[in-house]
Structure formats: structure tokens, C-alpha cells
Amino acid sequence: MVGSLRRFLRSLGPGLITGVADDDPSGITTYSVAGARHGLALLWTAWLSWPMIAVVQLICARIGMVTGRGLAAALRRKFPRPFVLGIAVLLLATNTLNIGADLAGMGDAANMVTGLPGLLWVIVFGFVIAAGVIELHYVAFVRVLKWLTLALFAYVIDGLLVGHDWGRIVRTTFFPPLSMLHDRAIWTTVVAILGTTISPYLFFWQSSQEVEEERARGRNTVRKREHMTHFEFWLRKRDVGVGSFFSNLVMYFIILTTGLVLHEHGTTAIETSRQAAEALRPLAGSFAAALYALGIIGTGMLAIPIMSGSAAYVMAETFGWREGVNERWRGARPFYAVLTASIVVGIVLNIVGLSPIRSMLLAAIVNGLLAPVVLVAILIVAADRDLMHKQPASRSEWLAVAVTTLIMTLAAVGMVVF
């Protein structure tokens, strides 16, 4: 029994880490705002968006496993270089803004726990994360990220601590109030949730980590990495399913906690995760508030390496640089330069006083507009039998991602209209 559990945990990798990284401090803020403003009315978004996230991750994993290349490199073989470069630049810009907002959230949470200045913590966290990514070998890097996923259990524990009347909670989860159909504010929040949850940087990170997994097994050339077995894909499907489920479970409990504790006690006007944590203290107790704050720090330590790393992978694959967190600094200087620059700029944004909320909003807008474009490109690549070495996406996968693309397109339109 113990051996089977150990093998199962060891088999989890890119899918788990990519899925859980979706719950970064900016995402936590969005879910907290949703719960505080609308109570339990948006619990249904957690289970509805789960298959959307899972199928997009899965098709990106397939592209990486079959082609032996990251997503940006696969796109380069199908689309003009200026198109891929445009995506790369936008991704780098939005990731950097998100990193700045996430560092601010981590600094606020650390200040709340320790009393030391938040800006000091922003600088410390930024440099610790950059140094860790540069110095750690890929296997050690992944091991650290796996352990950091445990930080998200803080929100599950919070939800269980404050939960009551589970019959009503379950009914609201699957049968949301009909009054929401005419509430523009709720649909605006739904757009924000989708934009935060289905983020383009996750698409690129998933496929690039498939390549890193292959390299870790000694398959150092594209030819050796091409193709996949049914068993390998089955393992990744399980990996992605677990990661995306855990991510959405955490989203569910964040909305549940803030809905029960804040909304139902009249606290609806919050804009940051720190405000959510501070508001929890008098209503749910210091332990719940501390768990909430510590969860923000842990999720930031998990998500920022993935944001900075995904931008570095995309730029490297676009320009043909040597890449990978398995490489040493001397062997992949441009790759690591992009990675560290995105973190340093994120720190600088906090030093010059750029509002984290404004950074998050700008990133959400660009991500919301960029995601449908990237998803269409992914569909074209995944359906190309030659590029996919006669292992294209299945019809069900392709249709599921097409539906997700349509929903994301409508969400982008809704973001502009609302």
C-alpha cells in the first residue's frame, strides 16, 4: 500500500505542478474577491472550469511529448516567426506584471505574519526564487515545487474550519441562484475568474516541462524525444487530472471561505488577498487568518518560478537559444537572463510603487485577450498529423479544447463589454 502510494506520488510531475501553479497570489485575490462580493453564488465555477483547464493542459502535454519540443518551438514550425514573437513578447510582459503583483501579495502576507516591511520581503523572495531556479538541478527543482504544492492545503483547511450547513453549500455548488442570470457584476467576476484560471503561461510551461522530463531521462535530442507510448500518455493524463482537480478544489475552498466568513458578515469591499486575510481574523480566528497568509507565500514561491520560467522558455524557443532549468548559467545565459530579468523587473515595479491591483488587472486583460489566440494556434498544431508525427490530438480532446476556446473568446468579449 505504502509502495503503491509512493509510486503514484513519484509519477506526478508537470501536470500537478502546472495545475497547482494556477493558484498564484493573483488568482487567490480574484477568488477572494469573488467570494466576498458574491458569497457562494460562484462556487459552481470551480467544477465547471476543471475540465476546461485539464483538457488544455493535456493537449499541450501531448504536443510536448509527441514533437519533443516546447509549445513555442512547435508553433514556429507552423506559423510565421513574427506571430510567435508577438505572443512571446506579450507573454513576457504579462508574466512580469503578474510576478510584480504576486511578489507584492507575498510581501504583504509576510509583513502580516512577521511585522517586517513588505518591500523587504519582496526583495528577499525575489532573489531567493531567482537563485533557486538558477542553482537547482531539474530533478531537485521539481522536487521543491512538488513540496510547495502542500501550501495550498491551507485553504482547504480554512474552508473546513469555517464551513457549516454543508447541505446548503452542496446545493449552491451545483444549483446556483437563478438571480445571478441578470446580475452583470457576477458575470464580470466570472470573466475575471476564467481569465485568471486559464492563463497562457501555463500552456507553454506544461509542454516545456514535458521536454525537460524527457531530458532528465537522457533523451537529449529531438529525435530521441519524438513520439510517446499509450502508457506514457496515460500517466500524464492522470498527472494532469490530479493537478487540475487540486487547483480547482483550492479555488472552491477560497470562494467558500471568503463567502461564508466575509460576505455573510457584510464584508464585501476587498481588493487584495491581504485584506481578505485580515478580515478573516476577527471572524474566523487568528489561526485561519495565518493559514490564509502563509498559503499566499507558499503559492507565490511555486508560481513565480513557473511564470518567469515559461517566459524564458518561450523566448528561447522563439530565438533558438539553448534552454532549460537543467542547464547551468554559462550554457544558457540568454534563457536565464530572461528568467531573472522578469523577476528583477517585478521587484522594481514594487519599489517604484506600481499598484499590484493595476498590475494584476493589466495582466488579466492581456491574458484574457491572448488566451483565445494561443488556443486557436494550439488547435491547429494539435490537428497537424505531420507535425504531430501521426499522433494528433483525439477528436474528443480537440473538440473539448475548441469549446474552451469559444468560451474564452466569449469571456474576452465580455471583459471588454462589461
User: Would you report the number of β strands?
Assistant: 0
Mean pLDDT: 86
- Could you list the spans in which at least 5 consecutive residues all have pLDDT below 50? none
**Backbone structural class:** mainly alpha
Q: Report helical residue fraction.
A: over 70%
Q: Termini separation (Å)?
A: 52 Å
How many helices? 19
* Main sheet summary: none
Taking Cα atoms only, what radius of gyration do you get, to the nearest Å?
Answer: 20 Å
Strand percentage lies at: under 5%
Order of helices and strands: HHHHHHHHHHHHHHHHHHH
Shape label: globular
Tags for this entry?
0% strand; globular; mainly alpha; 418 residues
Word description of this protein:
By secondary structure, this protein is mainly alpha-helical. 78% of the residues lie in helices and 0% in strands. It has 19 helices and no strands. Helix 3 packs antiparallel against helix 11 and helix 12 packs across helix 16. The longest helix has 34 residues. It is globular and about 60 Å long. The N and C termini lie far apart (52 Å).
What does this entry show, briefly?
The chain is mainly α.
Layout of SSEs?
Layout: H1 2-11, H2 14-21, H3 25-38, H4 44-67, H5 71-76, H6 81-114, H7 118-135, H8 138-148, H9 153-162, H10 166-174, H11 184-197, H12 200-216, H13 222-225, H14 230-261, H15 273-284, H16 286-319, H17 333-351, H18 356-383, H19 395-417
Helix pairs in contact: 2-12, 2-14, 2-16, 3-11, 3-14, 4-12, 4-14, 4-18, 4-19, 6-7, 6-15, 6-16, 6-17, 6-18, 7-16, 7-17, 9-14, 9-16, 11-18, 11-19, 12-16, 15-16, 16-17, 18-19
